[in-house]
Amino acid sequence: MVNLKGKHIYLRALEPNDLDFLYQLENDTSIWEISGTLKPYSKKMLQRYLDNVHRDIYDVKQLRLCICNLDDVCIGLIDLFNFDPKNRRAGIGIVINNTKSRNKGLGAEAIALLCDYAFSVLDLHQVYANILEDNAASIHLFQKLGFEKVGIKKEWIRSSTGFKDEILFQKINDDVS
């Protein structure tokens, strides 16, 4: 069985007491560009989401986990999305909320843990990430973890400065046929 605990962080399911963290994160306009968010979320709407977060990945096609430090403080979220059991693939997304917690290896540890889970428990053949062309830190992170650049979606994301390319990265599980 996969252990969702690393040296510095662990991954856990969302809990009802994560409402304030989720509210803060989802309403942080600085990350709306990467999350595709267009409007603020109310606490009532996020509470409805939390009330249904127990649903199975095979049903909702998504798994969202909290990234917690070893002091049990939630520092970010990591997702599997667009889960496709037939083709055995899913997208992966991550956000570390506090900028002071970034660039310390915590995101790499979280991605490695989730990939291990995706490959060994969900029996996925591949995971992929969509990263904006100007997000050098994320590009470096995913490449360091063995994700390969496989394509560019030209002028894919509209931002305040114009359209940006989105780069598609993919990691194939060579242990699965």
UniProtKB/TrEMBL annotation:
SUPFAM superfamilies: Acyl-CoA N-acyltransferases (Nat). Coiled coil: none annotated. Residues 9-170 form the N-acetyltransferase domain. InterPro entries: Acyl_CoA_acyltransferase, GNAT_dom. One of its GO terms (molecular function) is acyltransferase activity, transferring groups other than amino-acyl groups. It comes from the Bacteria. This is GNAT family N-acetyltransferase. It comes from Flagellimonas ochracea.
